[in-house]
């Protein structure tokens, strides 16, 4: 697990061990200057590479090898964005995906653009069928699962919430329904995650004063949504991953519990790890690898019309 501690320092934690292990932050070593008030956000992870962003800078970084490369910003970037990063096995290609929307344009409220950056082709391409009717939060990160990138999004033409999936091989968007319990609406602090081998939804339930974990026992089958874990809503909790024995690790933000926390499958707090510089700005699960990126990324980038 990679944690952003304070720009541009990061640390890595083995989430299967105790959270009380205190690793020393390491500098990225990116060879450009950043003003002290700017920081990178972790936007995605795939096959050992981490997607870092701070507008207008985008980097892919392999912490295991120290390799890093800078990518150009999406040409049609708008204010509200869904981000994603994944691997297309059929083409041996890594893709950065940006679904951006300007929900304030009155004459065309569906003004969305779906763009992908191919590492192999070293270019941005706008996916046909633009003006998709999806509007997300500001700078939402996509969840990589089963060869697709997923986002929670509002379908603004019918005003319901759905899960949007972008297939990295077919390069097409599709929709997945939320659990029927939510009636096409989700609480503001909901997020997607992978829990064990299952695709999941983590949702705050203020009516019950709890945070609930729903998992899809069979991918894309709506009837397979199952509520598996309930935690009392005493702290703001943002899940990151689950361990092999079913424990849940995430970030907790509160006056007395500010850092990494670990809960068991019954919702009981097991461990807490506070960071010296305050709460981590972002964190993501990643797998160490010595892989390199395909293609030559030193050529000028191109935009395919």
How would you describe this protein?
This protein has 305 residues and is mostly beta strands. The protein has strands at 2-6, 9-12, 26-27, 41-46, 49-54, 57-61, 68-71, 80-88, 93-101, 112-118, 123-126, 134-135, 140-141, 143-145, 148-155, 160-167, 172-176, 191-195, 198-205, 210-216, 225-232, 236-242, 248-253, 259-263, 269-274, 282-284, 302-304. The chain has a six-stranded mixed β-sheet with strand order 13-8-9-10-11-27, with no helix packed on it. Strands 12, 14, 15, 16 and 17 form a five-stranded antiparallel β-sheet that branches. A four-stranded antiparallel β-sheet has the order 3-2-1-26, with no helix packed on it. The two termini are 38 Å apart. Residues 11-236 form the F-box associated beta-propeller type domain.
Key words describing this protein structure:
305 residues; mainly beta; six-stranded mixed beta sheet; five-stranded antiparallel beta sheet; 27 strands; 0% helix; disordered C terminus; SCF_F-box_component; F-box-assoc_dom_typ1; F-box associated beta-propeller type 1 domain-containing protein; F-box-assoc_interact_dom
């Amino acid at each position: 697990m990679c944690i952003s501690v304070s720009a541009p320092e990061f640390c890595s934690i083995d989430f299967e061990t105790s959270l009380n292990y205190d690793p020393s932050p390491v500098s990225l070593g990116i060879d450009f200057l950043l003003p002290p008030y700017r920081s990178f956000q972790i936007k995605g992870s795939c096959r050992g590479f981490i997607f870092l962003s701070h507008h207008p800078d985008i980097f892919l970084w392999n912490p295991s090898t120290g390799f890093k490369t800078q990518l150009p910003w999406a040409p049609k970037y708008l204010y509200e964005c869904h981000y994603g990063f994944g691997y297309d096995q059929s083409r041996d290609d890594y893709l950065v995906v940006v679904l951006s929307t300007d929900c304030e344009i009155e004459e065309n409220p569906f003004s969305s653009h779906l763009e992908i950056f191919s590492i192999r082709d070293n270019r941005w391409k706008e996916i046909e069928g633009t003006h998709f009717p999806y509007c997300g939060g500001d700078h939402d990160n996509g969840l990589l699962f089963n060869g697709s990138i997923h986002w929670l999004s509002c379908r603004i033409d019918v005003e319901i919430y759905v899960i949007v999936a972008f297939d990295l091989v077919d390069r097409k968007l599709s929709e997945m329904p939320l659990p029927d319990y939510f009636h096409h609406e989700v609480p503001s602090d909901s997020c997607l995650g992978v829990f064990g081998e299952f695709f999941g939804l983590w949702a705050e339930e203020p009516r019950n004063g709890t945070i609930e974990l729903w998992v899809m026992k069979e991918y894309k089958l709506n009837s397979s949504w199952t509520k598996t874990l309930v935690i009392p809503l005493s702290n703001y909790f943002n899940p990151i991953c689950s361990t092999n024995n079913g424990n849940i690790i995430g970030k907790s933000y509160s006056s007395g519990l500010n850092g990494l926390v670990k809960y068991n499958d019954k919702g009981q707090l097991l461990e807490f790890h506070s960071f010296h510089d305050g709460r981590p700005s972002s964190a993501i699960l990643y797998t160490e690898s010595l892989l390199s990126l395909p293609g030559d990324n030193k050529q000028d980038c191109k935009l395919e019309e």
